[in-house]
Amino acid sequence: MGKGRTKPFVMPINRTGEDRPILFVGWIDALPVPAALIRPMERGRFRLHASNAAFDRLGLSTVGTDIPTELLQAIERATLNPADTDEFACQLGEGVAARDLRGSIGPLSSECGDDSLFLLTLIDRTQEMMTERNLRRELVSDSLTGLPNRAGFEELVEERAATDAEKPGDHAVLLLDLSRFSRINEHIGSLAGDELIITVARRLKSSLRSGDILARTGGDEFAVSTRIGKGKADIRELAGRIRGCFDHPFRIADLKVSVGCAIGCAIQSAPGTDVADQFRHAQIALKRAKRTDRIEIYEPEAARLVDNRFGLETELRHAIEDDRLRLDFQPLVEFATGAVAGFEALARWTNGDGQLVSPSEFIPVAEDSGLIVPLGQWAIGKAAEVLADWDRQNGGERVDCYFSVNVSAIQLVRDDIAQAVRSALETHKIGGERLMIELTESAIIADPDLAMSVLSKIKALHARIAMDDFGTGYSNLAYLQRLPLDVLKIDRSFVEHMVDDREKVAIVRTIQSLAETLGMRTTAEGVETADQARLLSALGCDFGQGFLFARPMDSISALEFWRQSRTKPIF
């Protein structure tokens, strides 16, 4: 809405002369909105013939009044097109006293045949516009810091890009995510956490240049838009200053809180680049920065990898829903007898193009997307199904082995694993002792109380539990003693080269002694040589798993492998 002003010549109302159309005076006074009869003249002039009290209170009937430019333009248009009614918006006055008006002007013929009179009406929309502006401000602002939120940030960046289109240089977006904020918030409380966010915002603002845009785009995420002239060098300089804001602890009440941040950046790659795309590019860089703890700048190759991961996620989702994955089985060999005691069930996926997708590729995608929960449920159910099928192939006689199924730390938190095991056992009518659930050491020690609750429920179903990758997660021995574990799986990093490394032998011996003390058995992973197997057996290890015995195989081959081990020891 324009705020231009001019001072046209305004004829005062002639209270006694014939210029005043007496016929309309009472009618105009009866209108509920400011209204007047005017006669347009040349060069922005007009004669005011009659007006009601509401119009007079606006001050527009006074000679020398500042008349809004929009009103004069509407009068001029009405003069040029006397048959049409013209609507317009204008603002009367300045600052806090300004009034927002919506006007309408159209021809009004008199009974005397004078068709040069126009009826001007004005509606005061000040309160409505104020409410709209306040709502708009709330929509694009962060209520805690007063900074723009993500929507407001994108609008401001778009506006500046349009304004600076002809200026040299590029624009860049930097995203920063506060490290440890959720844990800090849990310990000091949400009110103190809010105070920390406000303090961080103030420090960040003080580190920026004039013209930089700062926004809070998430709970603990901030965004900066800046103009750069030297490409990546400028970005790294600014990012360095931002990181400098976190060099000293933040004082919150009586506490001093140290906070770090990860920073991801994206440079506008071409004129007209969509702000949402630039923001997404910065998010990709930020995600990488969280892993590397470095200032990361978006590269197109990273975006292609992300796009590939989204495509892989979609395809994996369909594969799980359509039961197009399979389980392969790697034998667990008992050192004392050389027989196959069980198999580890491993998820395998061949995509729609007939290509085998590595678990190291699709498992992380499943964990990031949450698909690890249905994938884990599928694996537990499929393992039970294969065991039941083996019993049928064995003439209805129970096959004397168990399947070990891996469960992700994410599934431990998000899913009811015990219910998934119960459902699989009941559906396929097999005993719980024929399933072993494997959880990584890091998953268990991340939340020991939750692990204790979940594992106790699994044990109530008579299923067994193994701690995978033992020795890599620095378990608390007090918790280890409490947990209802059956097997410790010795990580392959300790088995590799152990024949020539006394330190690794000492570690394996210590794990074996610990397991015996706690009444647990041990399985060594990654057994690839006969010397490793003999040494592990001599140390008292119970089971071995690795390429020395067999690579993962399909269910038909695995059943035959088990049968052969009954008559001819594998080791």
UniProtKB/TrEMBL annotation:
Occurrences of domain EAL (ranges): 309-566
Gene3D superfamilies: 3.30.70.270, EAL domain
Record-linked PROSITE patterns: EAL (PS50883), GGDEF (PS50887)
Recorded superkingdom: Bacteria
Stored SMART domains: EAL (SM00052), GGDEF (SM00267)
InterPro entries given in the database record: Biofilm_reg_signaling, EAL_dom, EAL_sf, GGDEF_dom, Nucleotide_cyclase, Rev_trsase/Diguanyl_cyclase
Lineage, broadest ranks: Bacteria, Pseudomonadati, Pseudomonadota, Alphaproteobacteria, Sphingomonadales
Protein name, as recorded: EAL domain-containing protein
PANTHER family in UniProt: BIOFILM ARCHITECTURE MAINTENANCE PROTEIN MBAA (PTHR44757:SF2), DIGUANYLATE CYCLASE DGCP (PTHR44757)
Pfam families in the record: EAL, GGDEF
NCBIfam families given in the database record: GGDEF
Organism: Sphingopyxis jiangsuensis
Residue span(s) of domain GGDEF: 169-300
